[in-house]
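Final report, closing paragraph on structural work. Over the funding period we assembled a curated collection of sequence-structure pairs, and we close with a single example.
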Amino acid sequence: MTISGSWQRTARGAGLLSPDGRIASTIFAEMSALAQTTGAINLGQGFPDEDGPAEVLEAARRAIADGVNQYPPGLGMPVLRQAVATHQQRFYGLTVDADREVLITAGATEALAATILALVDEGDEVVTLEPFYDAYGGLIALARGVHRTVPLRLPGFLPDHDELRAAVTDRTKVILINNPHNPTGTVLPRETLELIVELAHEHDAVIVTDEVYEHLVFGVQHVPVATLPGARERTVTISSAGKTFSTTGWKIGWIVSTPELVTAVLAVKQFLTYVNGAPFQPAVAVGLGLPDSYFHQTADTLRAKRDLLSQGLEKAGFDVTVPNGTYFVVADAAPLGYRDAATLCRELPGLAGVVGVPISAFCSDEHAGEYASLVRFAFCKKVDVLERAAAQLARLGR
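Its predicted structure, as stored:
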């Protein structure tokens, strides 16, 4: 039986369709399986191994005990929509109407899916940075859009402004940026964001900005695109609770945008999950209301973990690009004699008892070669786990 349909287009867009037409195993699944079978420390997947703040966890338990277990409203529970609006004002000075400009979603991935499916039609172009989170390619293809990319290049993993200008044209429907950026850890400078706003106006494009790592920045400022002059009316801001509160399994995300854009996204979102996570929504509202000290301490703790792992990678002989944000550090394996990071990643459990993922897994075939020797490691793990990983990696340099 031949099973046709949009799954093939989606898988191809995400780089998961093998030449014979079957779904190929992702490098993430392969590396996680390798970690499990070898007992290696899994620094390939970007999820924390520690629970979030006690107040947030207790709020979820209390909500379940209080019977908050049925469908929430389609837009999301008012308490969370108001918490998101208050958060945008508190941290960024943005005035947001909680009743008309906030939509709660099943994590940032559903927010991305609903937004792209709502705004992109067949033949519309979507511009992203590259390397890109794999969901972007799959969703753009599902919407029958055309995926254009602008490479991030060393040093600093920044885009060339001339290449950005060339990529955005009158065919561009959406400029989709991930800032702070997974997998490179770069935080885009203000001048790049201002150029994106300029190009969106020039070509009448919508800016969709994935800001799930907004509070996980180190020594730099996160500037939401929506705060820039002329950006608010054409920007869909996406974020979630998973990274900020170490609750990736709860899948509570949101979009903030104009009433018109929220309505357009809701028209699609209501036929995806409809609603989700009723008892987790008031718990996330508690998290968004935590004092500034929580957000500062979370970033400071993660920065120390970044430094710990980076030092181990440097001792091993990698060239390390120290990230300004996210959960991830990128290391170049070329000094160790590996031009193909995928090969190293498959051998690393035996060499050092550690698992990472090659950056090429986040790239199109056209540009994968530019990043062939680079590996992404996650440092959102317990300190003792990172200490062991750093010590084991350091043996490579002996």
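The CA atoms of residues 178 and 210 lie 5 Å apart. The chain has a mean pLDDT of 95. We thank the funder for supporting this effort.
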